[in-house]
Each structure stands twice: as structure tokens, then as C-alpha cells.
Amino acid sequence: MMRTNKRNILTTIRICVLCFVCALCLAPFYVALCYAFKSKSDFAHTKLAFPVHLYLGNFSDAVHLKNFFTSVENSFIVAFFVVVIIICVCSAGAYVITRRNTKFYNTIFYIFQLVILLPFQTVMFPLYKELSRIHALNTLWGLTVAVVGVNVGYYVFLYSGFIKTVPRSLEEAATIDGCSQYQTFFHIVFPLLKPITMTVTVLAFLASWNDFIISMIICQKSIKRTLPLMQFYFFGEYSSNVSVAFAAALLAMIPAVLIYFCAQKYIVEGMTAGAVKA
Amino acid sequence: MNKTARMATKTALLAAVTAACMVFPGFAAGGKKITGNSSDSAQNISGDLNIIHYLTETAKLKALDDMVAGFKTEYPNVKVDVESTSMDNYQDVIKLKISTGDAPDIIFGSCKTYSDLITSGNIEDISNQPFVSRIAPGVLSNVQLNGKVYGIPLDEMANVVFYNKDIFARYGLKIPHTYSEFIAVCRKLQQNGVTACAAGYQDNISVGANFYTIFFGAPYLTSENYAAELIGGKSSSGYPALAKSLTQWREIMQYQNTDRKTIDTDRAEQKFANGETGMIIIGTWGLGAIMNYNPKGNFGGFMYPSEEKETDNAIPVATDDTWMLVKNSQNRKAALAFCEYMTRKDVNAKWCATTSQLSAISGVTVDTFPVPMKDIAQIAAQKKAANWLSVGTFSGQYDTTWYRVLQDYAITDSLSVADFCKQLDKEFAAAKK
Amino acid sequence: MKYDKIKKTLVDFSFILPALVFFLYVIIIPLISGIQFTFTDWDGMSAVKHFVGLKNYRTVFHDTDLIQPILNTLLFTVVTVIVINIAGLALAMAVSKEFRGINVMKSIIFMPLVVSLVLVSEMWMYVYSDFFSLLGIPSPLIDRKTAMLGLAYMSIWRETGLAMIIYLAALKGVPSYMYEAAVIDGAGFWQRFKNVTVPFIAPAFTYCIPLWLAAGLRQYDYTYIATSGGPGHASESMAYYIYNYLFPYDKVGYGQTVAVLYLAVCIGISNIVTRMLRKREIEL
Questions:
Q1: pTM for the whole structure
Q2: Which of B2, B66, C38, C234 could bond to C257 as cystine, CB 3.0-4.6 Å?
Q3: Are residues B222 and B294 located together in one domain of the fold?
Q4: b/e for C94-109, b at 16 or more Cβ within 10 A?
Q5: B289 Cβ under 8 Å from any chain A Cβ
């Protein structure tokens, strides 16, 4: 009897704490909601009270803002290519690094690991000059190249952690059967990497979608801006009408939130399966 | 005639001329319209025109939209693209754009503040352009560097105190003419439970609103070359006028709204417009927004009295809304055409009417000013004015630092004047790394 | 035979080639050419660069302006690494037992990661100025002493969800029979935690701590958007300091020098930390 009571109390405490944490997590979103769903004058009066009348004027203003949809489009295009390229490039690279335990590949791996903490500022200026030279500035492909390059080390690291846990027996069997290296990788190994690929997809998508500093340096032109950049300029430009900026921001969050809800399961799966068993 | 009589005659003459100007538009010098080179007819100029600015006030944005729309009807083959960014990041953005080869054609900004762009050869010298002669001669030095003209000022801004006439009437307050009277007004309002002044120090603009009004009047006139001297290495503690202004500012902050550190200038303008405070220390560039928030507000304006003797006070008046051309721009013809368009009397008159600002172009008059602006126009014409952009000001890292240390001073109450000077000197020295 | 061996090596190499190409082009080559800038006083815009030898390096070592950003970055990094990991682990343990609504809670706690850093900064700026004033608490961003902590809290708010997911995954890997055995042996909560949980989730530590260490050392976005380094220099991070010299202040030579030296320091710190963690992991 005592045990059950104690457990009940603990559970209740746990639930309370969790609810409090959830409330903390949601508080800033609530502030954004209040700004977005109230007209400017309304907000000045009711501040953070729950929006009783949902004012949609801010949203219609937001949608008409210059380049709103273009920047969403730009973010999507860049994120899509970044994810695809990273999956292909990093899985292949991690495969050969894990399977061939030579000094050459180990050194490369070590350098990849080091670069994970490279502050972008260290390469920002020379990279920017170089991209300018080949006319890649203000282009989406230039941005894609930069984002991939900056993240390639980290995802090779992630992939290799997982590949280590994949038994070699299947590959050895395939080689005996006469498969080429490429066939072995694409048909045997890669499908087995599904959990980590899912994790990488979500993380790389988020990294590219939310990237600010690389986009700021490379895609200045308003037509080529990505979402975070557009949000930043909106908040600056509309500092006197922040409600519209928040409405735009909320709209922009929707794709990311949707993808997140669909892919949640895979994130945990992927993490469980491999990222942690380095 | 004795001195007083001569002064009186001068004043009367000035008043007469001003009145005449208001009654007879186009009276003042140079009524002829300068058209561009006849071979470049409006149809021939085509291509893009990229303009960038950091304006956020609704009235100015509307004026800009109107001006661009008017330009487009006259030059239908030019595609005009207007981009804006916040003032806090403007320098970054401009430099990024110029270094990338994505430079715009026309940029917004005062020649003195962005003089580093001029000295590094990125701004076009327009001294020999025909439309330059339309700029009012009194303010030409504001857009010159080393004798060459680099920018076109559209209007002038004055730094003043706007006040709520109803509140003043309610407590029997009169316009203060000395600093002690000003503080007395603040105190009386405070005692009656009314916030004396509105302010919002979350953005850089607040520094330009509050401190510039306090310092760039009479105190500035005692040390007009301060910018060059400070950049040259002179210590900021060697300027008693600066110390006096900082002390005044600190005292006035006591009478400003308690949430001044967490709101920005726009919200402060709102507060004043809604009648929550008796006064606001700001530039005339803020009047458009204030009138927007409360078109029926009963407001007036007066000169900030920094001195103890009424006749020593001066009102800071300088050029505002200046546009510069980027050198070697691909759309030079269109950019020059736009500059010519901007400086026409009728176009500029419309700009000034929409923004409620004094014009910087010769011979332009506006009769539709709101009441506070009429007060200011009178003061600017009659009282001593300090044109604080005529000699020079800070640019580049010095400008960023100057604003930053001032904003820090506003937000950190424990920072003394001596601390401020030490900090400023240290930062300016660092800019020479 | 030899031909086969060469072919095999080339095939192997082709797997890593694309990754290497991106890496070299975006990271290594700019890094090396950046080093050449450190020996000049280039302003980033003019066509001419003057060679000044080691002047920039000497300036860095005498530069007292570096102290504030270094302290700020250290404070931010230490606070975020510690709090994110502890909170993440605690939350993971709290949600590891299934009950109704647990998935909703997990989703809510992870949500902040979906939001861009720009939006996080903007939302929190307004939370600090509006929400906090309702509760009577002054905004941390306007006080020199608490500005960096205010930024740290933004990061904690955002990243704890990820820590929770990682630790949750790690916890799932702890065999339950170990817990049962420990309970039978009479072990209390803390003993169970220390002797059963920690050894099994050690790899998660090795993964998480360097991750947020790196993120903290690189921190730039929050400073740039929320406070621009203010008030004064109280919330200026190293990355922001470097950025200022590279772009707005036109001192590419000096800025690049600081960047290169900072990278060396970061690599050193990361090496030490990772080695310590690996040792601890092996021990456990």
C-alpha cells in the first residue's frame, strides 16, 4: 500500500514537472500567437490575454509581403538538394572510411570530426570571395554547395557511427557472389542504413531550413533569400508592425512542423539504432 | 540705427520673406526647371534601378512609394526595385552588397555617416550634375566631402521636443526656455502622476532621438570639429559640452517612462501619441508616425533648452533623407534620371508634404504642415540653428561604436559620464587596430 | 594482380571523392587562403593588399577587447552544455515510462528545434520585454550582468528537446534486467542511476557534450539578432566579434587572424574534452 502511494506521488510530481516544462516550451509560441492574431491596436490594449477574436488581417498582409512565397520556395529547394546530396555523399564516404581501416581514411575521418566545431566565420570571408569569383553568389546552387560543404563532416561522422554496427557478413557474401563494390553498397548496405538515413534527413533538413549566417552572406538579393533571412529582414522592416512579422513567421513554421510530425518516429528510431552506439 | 533696431529689422525682414515665400510659391531663387540632356528622352532610358534604404516610418515609406510611382510613369521602361533593411544592420548589408558586386544603384544615407564608403571610392561624385544646383545652398556642405558633392538631401530634420498641448494646459504649464524650466516642467508632470517624456532605448534610433536633441544644439556649437578630433585620438573627456549633455540626459531619464529600456522608439512614439506622456524628445522625422497614431492629437513643438540663458539655445537642424549614387553602377543613366526627378520642386514639395518635413531644395514650400511642424518651421527660421552635419560626423566602425556606447549609457544607469568617456576612448582606440 | 589492386583502391576512393570535393572546396581551401589574409591589412574591398607580416598576430595577443567576448562565450558554452545535458537526461528519464499523453509531451518539448534561430531570437526578445514585464521580472537582455545568460536560456529552451531524444534513445538501450537485479540487491535510486544507467548511456555523453560544446563556441545568431552584442559588449560572442571585424569594420586581415587563432583554440578544447570523455566511456 505504502509503495503504491509513494509511486503515485512520484508519478504525480513527474507529470506536474513535465506539464510545467511543456508550458515553458510553449510560452514563446503563445506570445507569437498573440501578436499574430491581434491587430496592432488591439495588442496594445489586451497585451497577452488570449486572443478572443482571431484577427486574420496580419496573415493576409503577411502573405502579400514581397517575396514571401519565393523565400519559402528557395528554402525548400535548397533544403531538398542539401538533404539529397548529403545522404548520397556522406553515406558513401562513411562506408569506405568505416570499412577500410587505413591510415589515409582514418586521417580523413579525424579531420572531418575536427571540422564539426569550425566556426563558420573562419572560412566565411575567403569562401565568399571565392564564390563571388565564380559568380555563385546570389544563386541557390552556390548556397547549396556551401551548406553541404559545411555539414559534410558532421554527417559522415553520424553515418560512420551507424555503419560500424552493420555486420560485414552480408557484404562479404555479396562480394563472393561477384558483386562490384558499387552494387554491394547500393543494393545491400544502403537499404540497411534506413534508420540513420531518416535521422540524417530530418537533421540535415532542419539545419538547411534554419540556416541563417551562410544564407546571409551568400544570398543577399531579396529574390534569392531563404526563409530565416526573410524573417530577419521582416522583423527589421516591420519593427513598427511586428504583428505582421509574427504572422509571416508562424506561416513559415508550418512546413517545418508538418515534416517534423510526420518524421518524429524516425528520429527516435534512428537515434536509438545507431547515433548513440558510436 | 542701434544694434537692437538692426536686429529687429533683420528679423522683420526675414519674417517678411518667409511669409512671402509661403504666400507666393516659387518666389525664391531659380524658378526654371532643368531638364536632362535632350538626347536622353524618357523613353530611351531603360533597364533596372535598384534602390536600398532603411526607412521604417509609414509616412516616409508612402512618400517614397509615391515618388517611385511618379518616376515610373515618366520613365516607363525602367524597372525600379526598392529594398529596405533595418538601420541597425544597414552598414553590414551595404558593404556585403558592394563587395559582392550586387551593389544597388542608389543608396539611402547621409554622406557624413557613410563617408567611409565615399573615401573607399564607392560613391559617385555628382558635383557637376545639373540638378545639384537645386539643393539649398545653406545645406550643401552637408553632402560634400573634400569639396565634392556626393549626395542629394531631400529634406531637413530638426531635433526638438514635441508636447501635448492638452496635458500642458491641464497642469498650467508653459513652454520652457531654459534647462531649469524644462526640468521644472518634468517635475510638475511627475508630481501629478504623468510621465514627462516618452522614450524607448531598444534601438539605435532612440539615441538619435534623445541624445542628438540634447547635444547637437548649443553644446555642439562649442566644438564643431569634435568628430575629426575624436577620430584623431583626442580624449572625449576634453569636451565639457559633451559631459554637460550626458549629465542632462541622465537627469531627464528619471522623468521618462519606466519601461524605456525594453521598448523601441516606435512604441515610445505611440505612447506619446496616445497621450500617455506629456512630451517626447525626438527628431521631426518622427512626427509622421506620431500623427499617424493619433491624427486628432493636439500637439505642439518647441526647441530643447539646453542652456540657462534663453538666447544661448540653438535648435539642431540638419539634412535628412539623403540619397547617394553608387559609382560605376550599371544603371547610371536611370539613377541620374531618378536624382533629377527627386530634386524637382513639385516632386520634392509632395515628398515634404507627405512626410511633414522642411525641404532641403531651394524654393520649395509646403503649406500643409501639421500644427507641431508649423511651430518648428517658425523656430527654425527665427532662432539660432546648429547644422551639425555640415562639418563632419562619425562613420564606419566609429559610427557603430559611438551609437553603441551611447545606447549602453542609456540602458546602464550605473554608467557615469567619466565611464562613458573612458569607454568611448577605448573603443575608438580599438578601431585603429 | 596489381591492376586489380589499383582498381580496388580507386573504387574505394571514388566513394569518398564527392565528400572530399565539397569539404576541400568549402572548408580547407578557404581556410588556407584565409591564412594568407592574416598577413595583410586588407579591408576586404580594395584591390590592393599590403603585406604586414606578423602585425595582426601581435595585435591579437595585446588585444584587451578580446577578453569580454572570450568570457561571454565561455559562460554561454558552459551554461548551455551543463543545463542542456542535465535537463535533457532528466526529461528523458521522466518520459521513459510510458503513460497517456507522453507522446504529445515529447513532441511539444522537441518543437522548439523546428523553429529557426532567427525566430527563436525574435520570439524571445518579445517574451523578455512583454511577458517578463507582466510578471514584474526585468528583461535579462538589458542588464550587462545577465545579458549572456538571457541568450543562454534561449539556446537551452531550443536544444533541450534534442538532448531529451538522444538520451531517451540511449536509455532504451539499457537492459531492464540490470535494473531488476539492482533492485533485488537493494540498490536505491541514486545507486541504480550511478551504477546501471550511467555506464550504459556513456556513449550518449560522448556524443552530446561535444555537440553542444561546438555549438556554444560557434554561437553567433542569438547575439546578432537579439542584442547585437549589447548592452556595451556584454553579450558579444567570439564568433560575433570576428564577424564584426570581417565585414562591418573592414578589417579582414585582423578579423581573419582572430578567426584562425580561435579555430586552433577550439580544436584544442574539443580534443581535450573528447579524449576525456572517451577515457571515461571506456572505464565505464
A1: 0.84
A2: C38
A3: yes
A4: bbeeeeeeeeebbbbb
A5: yes
